[in-house]
Amino acid sequence: MARIEFQGVGHSYEPSPAGPEDYALQPSDLHWHDGGAYALLGPSGSGKTTLLNVISGLVRPSKGRILFDGSDVTGLSTAQRNIAQVFQFPVIYDTMTVFDNLAFPLRNRGVREPEVQTRVGKVAELLELTDDLKRRASGLAADAKQKISLGRGLVRSDVAAILFDEPLTVIDPHLKWLLRLKLKQIHQEFKLTLIYVTHDQAEALTFADRVVVLSEGRAVQVGSPTDLFERPAHTFVGHFIGSPGMNLLPCELDGDGVRIDGFSIPVAPARLERARGASGELILGIRPEFVRCQAHASADSLAAEVTAVEDLGNYKIATARLGRHLVKAKLKASASIAPGPGWLVFPQKWTLLYAGGSVLE
Amino acid sequence: MRKTLDNRAWFLVLPVFALVAFNAIIPLMTVVNYSVQDVFDATHRSFVGADWYRAMLRSSRLQNALGRQFLFSALVLLIELPLGVGIALVMPKKGGWATSLTMVLVALPLLIPWNVIGTIWVVFLRPDIGLLGHFIDHTLGIHFDYPTVPSQAWISVVLMEAWHWTPLVALLAYAGLRAIPDAYYQAARIDGASGWAVFRYIELPKMRGVLTIAVLLRFMDSFLIYTEPFVLTGGGPGDSTTFLSIYLVKLAIGEFDVGSAGAFSIIYFLIVLALSYVFYQALQRVGTGEAK
């Protein structure tokens, strides 16, 4: 168990990277607290797996230093770093029994047999594999194989962190949440540092205490699931997280608010102040959960046209046309709204401004 | 859709029957026919039942040839499998020109006609002008004359066979190795596995399929070998490198003993069939059997 720290770590698969576009992972400072449960979230090609492999030592970064508990491990091999990693597809040693699979990392490190017996027994019990210990691993289902992969990490009492590379991709949906629950339980019991790569936001937000959102090789935000939801630091986070994603509307400054296609929208004075000094395209961002869409006018409401209402059972999504832009609002299932004239309200507290992609706070 | 019963549909399978009849059944039945008759000339023949089979099974020449054949196939498998796997392990892993070049170089012996292989080795082994023959005879100072020394004839034939066919094993093993996902190697590094453990627990099990094919192909081919040793040694000196097929040809064409040659062919065929089946079953069991 360790605190992991990146000092200007970046990686390029090119032998001599010329510009930022050559980097799969942009040089940056990041850290992971000891005992934290982290998710690395991002679309395909955003550098998640590269980042994970840099931590585990499978990939040696082109730039920067990696510290585990303050000591430099940049040059150390995977085995020396004491990292465990679970891959997207279960890796098991086909010819061995489940017991031998779990014992493999210990025996490779010269742990004595009685000790191996105890530790494998404990881990098997934790993962509910005790009945299968004598069976050959190749005959098991995908979820059991994934448990074995995880177990090979857990048997080592000294692991600095356990890394997961989209480990539930090949697992049946009804087993997914069981395994995720197991992971949570293990995390609480052992206080291990867990780093979990996924492109599934639901998985990331339920699993992790803190989520690192990656885009184009850059960590655009590190925060709790609530932070990501309420205060996306970057338009990418706003749009990528949430279903539907954040409404992002190009706007311009206008008195004590902003103007979108002739509609004035009031904005908190502090944000407005920041926007005056900022450069880059100004964008108003608001979550569909916070936009109010109503069938009658009220104070601060803007006249719009509701073009569609989707009833998704426990909530409704209304799409409204405001000038040339479409705004989505997530409403209660009981809300009475129909296509036709409608009024939108942008509560000041949740109306964020972005300049050049970054939030103005 | 309504289906109508029409027996004329059977005519559509006739071409297949004709093809199979001409390339398998008729030649095989001809051999069976010879093996149960004593043929004197074109008009005089008599039915002798299983006499030829009894005679052949008791023939010491056949038993000796069979013994040599087993020894030869065993040596070939023992040399070519480890060597082929070894070559595959040291071949470049990343794609690119180096890989392509290595593949072509390794595959070269497979592209040469078999009788040319024999001829190449005849020249290669000559003590006066052959590279290897000259090296052994002059540089090492060992008197080398494989056409008259049985042990040297054996070594020569086995060497030639290994040179010719190890590349096939190497290419098969290489294909098997390349099919292993990177995650296995990464997991092994994380688990602290040694190079030997990676080979023993990841590479070897994952190559099981291709190695099964390699064993079957190399066993059958080496058991049926004819052309290359025929060109190199002609089965000699004496009978020392007379393998089954060489003996069969001597019997059928040299001595025109078609009855015993027919019986021999059938016995030969059954041995190959039975052994291939045994190999296949055994290798299947190695991989999966003990788990169940």
Describe the structure.
The complex is a heterodimer of chains A (361) and B (292). Chain A is an alpha+beta fold and 361 residues long. Chain A has 2 domains: 4-12 and 21-239, Rossmann fold (3-Layer(aba) Sandwich); 245-359, OB fold (Dihydrolipoamide Acetyltransferase, E2P) (Beta Barrel), CATH 2.40.50.140. In chain A, 27% of the residues lie in helices and 33% in strands. Chain A contains 10 helices and 22 strands. Chain A has helices at residues 48-56, 78-81, 98-108, 113-126, 142-154, 173-190, 201-207, 225-230, 235-240, 269-277; strands at 4-12, 23-32, 37-41, 63-68, 71-72, 83-86, 161-165, 194-198, 210-215, 218-223, 247-250, 252-254, 257-260, 263-266, 282-286, 292-294, 302-311, 315-322, 325-332, 340-345, 352-355, 358-359. Chain A has a 6-stranded mixed β-sheet with strand order 6-7-8-3-9-10, sandwiched between helices. A 5-stranded antiparallel β-sheet of chain A has the order 16-20-17-18-19, with no helix packed on it. Chain A has a 4-stranded antiparallel β-sheet with strand order 2-1-4-5, with helices on one face. The two termini of chain A are 35 Å apart. The mean pLDDT of chain A is 86. Chain B has a two-stranded antiparallel ribbon. In chain B, a hairpin with a 5-residue loop joins strand 1 and strand 2. The interface between A and B is medium-sized, with 28 and 20 residues.
Which SSEs are present, and which pair or pack?
The complex is a heterodimer of chains A (361) and B (292).
Chain A: E1 4-12, E2 23-32, E3 37-41, H1 48-56, E4 63-68, E5 71-72, H2 78-81, E6 83-86, H3 98-108, H4 113-126, H5 142-154, E7 161-165, H6 173-190, E8 194-198, H7 201-207, E9 210-215, E10 218-223, H8 225-230, H9 235-240, E11 247-250, E12 252-254, E13 257-260, E14 263-266, H10 269-277, E15 282-286, E16 292-294, E17 302-311, E18 315-322, E19 325-332, E20 340-345, E21 352-355, E22 358-359
Parallel strand pairs in A: 3-8, 3-9, 6-7, 7-8
Antiparallel strand pairs in A: 1-2, 1-4, 4-5, 9-10, 11-15, 12-13, 13-14, 15-21, 16-20, 17-18, 17-20, 18-19, 21-22
Helix pairs in contact in A: 3-4, 3-5
Chain B: H1 14-35, E1 37-39, E2 45-47, H2 51-58, H3 60-90, H4 97-107, H5 114-124, H6 131-139, H7 150-178, H8 182-190, H9 195-206, H10 208-223, H11 227-232, H12 244-254, H13 258-288
Helix pairs in contact in B: 1-13, 2-13, 3-7, 3-10, 7-10, 10-13, 12-13
